[in-house]
Amino acid sequence: MSTELVIESYVVENLSSAPPRNRATSPVLPAGLSEQDVVIQWLKTKIAGDGRLAETTLAQYVVEARRLFWYARWIDTPISEWTLEEAGDYLSFLKAPDKAAICTGRVPRGDPRWTPFRKALSKASARQSQVIAGSLFKWLVAVQYLRADPFAGYGLAGKRRQRGKKQKRFVGQDGIELARDAIAARECRTDRERAKQARDLFVMELFTKTGLRTSEAINASMGSIQFVRFTAAQRAKHPEYPEGVWMLEVESGKGGQRRTVSCAAVMGSLQDYRVAYGLSSLPAPGETTPLLLGARRRTPELSRNLSARGVRALRRDLGTIDGITDRSSLYRLVKAIFKEALAWWDARDPVEADKLERASTHWLRHSFAKNLVASGADLLIVANNLGHADLNTTRVYIDDEETARAFETEKFLTGR
What we know:
Belongs to the 'phage' integrase family. InterPro entries: DNA_brk_join_enz, Integrase-like_cat_sf, Integrase_catalytic, Tyrosine_recombinase_XerCD. This is Tyrosine recombinase XerC. The protein is mainly α. The protein folds into two domains: about 35-155, DNA polymerase, domain 1, CATH 1.10.150; about 175-300 and about 305-400, Intergrase catalytic core (hpI Integrase, Chain A). Helix content is about 45%, strand content about 5%. The strands form two sheets. The chain has a three-stranded antiparallel sheet with strand order 1-2-3. A two-stranded antiparallel sheet has the order 4-5. The radius of gyration is 26 Å and the shape is globular.
């Protein structure tokens, strides 16, 4: 993973000479570690083993650790000294930080003006911060670095999905078709505009017909797509099977789990997209080209002092196209597509228009799941496609489960 496991050394000024009152002596941690070093040990446990965090999730854990240490310096109290009061004040601070704690503009880390806060956290974000902080302190107690957990009294259960609650954050089929039509209707006068049009159509197809998470899409390469042939035994048992199927291999799903998803439905738009970018129509095995490409070609700065190695690198990179590698860029791309669709749409349905205004990349994943369930796909197949470990997570996409269950129960009891 490329996420940097670095927590800035926030020095608490007025340290007591006595050991922190909540500090214990851990039999499993090296002696002499600073609080930052211990937290980095915790982060390392999060990227080891089968249940390791995805890189984007790990990045959020690093952000939360920075917030904790920054606040510890703000209140001049190391985390080993925190009581229920400091923990509660921290949770309140997340929702309503002091104005002096807000970092405005582009201030680099390391600058004295930098803080890990840009604004007050939303209710959902504050809850997530609470869950992560609780996870850290629970681990610190488990490895006997701390004697007690100051967050233990604050209900760190995280966000629980209400039983029976249905997923409403999705774009209907009409909205999806509208977005596709709006992209297809663009007047493209240059190769770059045509390439961007093909890319945007592929993005819509990819998320609505594979159900990928945002992080999974930006981490995928063209070589992740492979044609997998059925064995002779499989075709003998199932004569209706074709020669093979197109599959996309997800290397780093949620929790670090690998899975494959069918991508046959997106192959037509993939080929159009690749050709528009000057690539062969189908990806080569092991091809490292990012699955999602930007619209601009790279133009490195020229320098008279380039070494021979630098000149070779310049020639290699000149005119290449970078991939979309961060979630925010992809989020903005999809939001722009829906904004374009709304502007293009004359006769708006108020409900669908409201959804298009609020829709994001992740909504398209929900749209895929809803459509798959509505088509009659087995719930286990839907769960495996989405990478869900728990079928109850997938049940939110079933709209008629309660009424169907009631009818079947009544039929059984009445003998009708």
